[in-house]
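Contributing new records

If you add data, match the layout below exactly. Sequence lines come first and carry their own label; structure lines follow with theirs. Keep one chain per record. Anything else will be rejected by the validation script.
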Amino acid sequence: MKILIAADIFPPQAGGPATYVVMLANELEKRGDEVRIVSLNPQSDSAAVRCPVEAVKSQNKLLRYWQYFFLLWKRAKSADVVYAMGPVNAGFPALLASKLRGKRLAVKIVGDYAWEQYQNEECGMKNAELLGINEFQKGGGYSLKIKILRFVEKFVARESSAIIVPSLYLKRLVVGWGLSEHCVSMVHNEVEYVSVNSIEHENEKWVVSVGRLTPWKGMDTLIEIMPDLLKENFNLKLKIVGDGPMIGNLRKKIKDLNLENSVELTGNLPKTKTLTYMASANVFVLNSGYEGYAHVLIEALNQGVPVLASRVGGNDEVAAGEALFEYNNKKEIKEKILANINTPKREPIRHAFFMGGTMEMINHTKELLQQICQN
């Protein structure tokens, strides 16, 4: 099978989508499929995968999208199927290219892109109260840009031959866009165990969180509860790995609360270094207002550290019971951190976490792509 992958995020960019593309492409190549990737990232690291990677060259946004569409149109001619990593940045150009070439299109959906842009831009600029992703689905009161993005993602989803989502939560969300349930397939993302050496911090207790620094990731709340946590354990340190539009606000908050010696913002780190911070955690915390299916939770569990997560989105498909808390509930988060900070680390899980591992994810994805080629 000849598979053209349309990727909008690609290494050295961090995050679950970039990790997924690399894993999928390499495993499919091992099985004899011909894979080619077209990337929207001009700085794409072609050495990350075994297959050919073509990336746009322009830094100009409009020209970059035109080049992206042209590359997809050019390469779709010899592909059996096009697989887009998202319904907007990758999906819309891929839909146009696949339609013009008469090819089938599958789309991976890991979240609501329109909602993310609403949170980043509208709420960030106007200091408006954040609207949750479930409330956002009801519509109304958005800018023209957000309305267009909502239309595009739903249009691409409805026009695609198959939709792949990583969680049952996301399947329910996408079906709510007007799709039939049988058009949306749930395939859990899997993460292979990577062995790393933890950082020695014998006299400190580390709370670690990893994620893009966006309004809904709740990193500001973790910083705000630190003064109270330090009253209970003065050796406690908060380590936040990631970058994003909120980093300036978070730096200011750390300074205002005199937490320069207790909170570290590492910025983006290479994958192995990020895993090293996870493996070094006494407690890993994900206080996010939305997660489709969080790679970082699986990666932290794979390293054997205690994991706490907000009770939102697909998090309860990874963590459960006492590991879950109400998003941004400071009292509950503090209590759970203090209750788990001295929990012994387990032996790392040296294989993927769900459904028979990474091979099951690859098998299921390949079957779905084959099915739409044959229909």
